[in-house]
Amino acid sequence: MAAHRKFTFENPEDSYWNSNDLIDVPFSNSPTINATATREALDDLFESKLRFDSDDGWSNTGSESPSTGGNQIKQNLRNRIRDLPKTVCAPSHPVSESNQSPDRRFSSRTGAVHWDSISPFVSDGSAESLPSNSTAQLDYSRLKSEHRKLQKHLEQVRLERYRAADPQLTIRRLLRNDSVSLDLYRSKKEKLDLLDAALESCDGNVIIAVVLALERSLETSIFLDILKQKPVAACHYVAYLKDTKNFDQLTSTLLALNRTEEVALVLYSVACKKQPNERIAHLKKCLNVCTAVPSLEAFSKSVNEYINLLERQIVIEDADEALIKDDKDGKNKIFQQYPKTITLIGRPVLTTLYYSCLYHFDLPVNAYASPLSIKECFNITEKQYAWMAISALTSLKRWNDIERVLMSKKLLGGVKIHCPFAWRHLFTIISRDERPPKEILCKLLRAVPDISERQCLANQFPEASEITIECLVAQKDRVALSAFLAKLTPHTIEAYKALNALNNVHNHRLRRINKTNHECDVVGQFSLTIFILLIQPKGDT
Length: 541
Fold this sequence. Notes:
2 strands, 25 helices, mainly alpha
C-alpha cells in the first residue's frame, strides 16, 4: 500500500508530490489536486480522532467524551460538505484504472467507501463528481478553518480532562446513571460543594454516592465533622450502614454524632444475634454504654436482668445435662417422662420459670434453679408465677401442689383459695390434658366467690353436679332445681341431694305457713280480749 504522509494545510500538496505512486493525471488539473488534498485533510482529521480515542487516562467528567467529540467533528464536516455546491466538471484526461498500481487502486476504493459514509460529493477521483476550481478553493479554505477550530477544541478537551467539572453538571450525570469520576474533586471546598449539590437533588442514591466518595478521600475526623454539619447526609449514611450491616462503623459514627441511645440499641441488637456464650460479653458492652446515659436507666436495668438470666440459664443447663448423663439407673423419672428437646439458654424468663417448675419445683428458694428464686430475682408477679406454676404442675398432675399455689392468707390469719387471674382461665388450664379429681375440682369450684360464675363453671363439668345443686339452692330457684333434677340419673347421690333439697324447701315453706297462721291466731285472740275489756262497763269488772 502506498505510503501516506500526514497532511498539513501549510503544504497541502506535499503528500501528493512526494507520493511514489504514478497517476496518469495532468498536472494542470487543479480541481483534482484540491479535491484530493481536501479528501486527505478529512482523513487526517479522523486519524486525529482515533489518536485521541486511544489516549490513556481519559476520565474527564466535566467535558464530553472523546467519542462524543469525534462524532461532533464528523457531524460538523458532514454539515459543511452538505452545504457545498456541486458542479460537474468533465475530465480532460480520464484516469485509467489499469494504469494504477494495485496499492493505489486499493487505497482509492477504501477512500471511496470512507467518503460514501460522509457525503456523496467526492468519489474515487472521478472528474464528474469534482467541483470547479473556484468552488474547490472556497471549500478548501473553509475546511482549513474548520480544521483549526476542531484542533483547538480537542486540545482544550485534552487539557481539561483531569479537571473537576461543575458540581451541578456532575450531579445531573449521576441522576442519569452516567459514569462519573468523583476523585477529581480534591480540595475540601470542592467536596463540600459537591455534597451540597447532591443534597439539593434530594436523591438518596446520589447523596450516598457522594458521601461514600468523601469517606474514601477524607480523614475520619474531617469526614465526621462534615456529617455533623450535614444532618441529612448523616441520616442517609447511617441508614446505608444499617442496610449493609456494618455495625462497627455504624457504632463509631453514632458515637461521633452523640446519638448514644441509638448506639445502645444497635449494640443490643448485635448482641442478640450472637451465640449465647458471646452474647453476655456484648451485652455487658451495651450495658457500659447505657450506664452513662440517664435516659436509658430503665433500658440498662432490662439489659442487666437479661445478663443475669443468661448466666442463670447456663448454670441450670450445665447442671441438668450433667445430671442426665450421670442418671444411668433412671432415678430422675421426670427427665424420662418429659425429656428435654431444646436448650434452655436464650429462652425468655417465663419459659425459664416454667422449666424450673416442671423439673425443679421442690428446690428451696436459695437454689439457682428454684422457681421461687427466679420469681424474686426477676420481679415476676403473682399472676405470672401462678399461671406458669399451675401449667407445669398440671402436666405433672400434682393437684395438691396446685391447691397450695392458690392458697393465700386472710387478713385475720386464715387461709383461703384465691386465683390471681380469671377463674375461667384456671379451669381451662387444669382441664387441658385431663380432668382433675372430683374432690379437687369441687374444692376449687367452691372457692369461686360469685354464685352465678360458680354455677356457669360447674355446668362445664358433669362430675361437679353437686356444686350446681348448691348454687340453685343458694339462689332459691325451685324451678331451675326441678329442671336440673330431671336431667340427673335417678338413684344417684346427686339426684337424692336435689330431691332432698326440693323436699326441704317444701317443708320449710309449710312450717313457715303454719308459723304464720299460729302467730295470726295469737294476735287475734289478744286483740279480741283487749276489745272486750274496752267495751265492758267499769262496774261489771
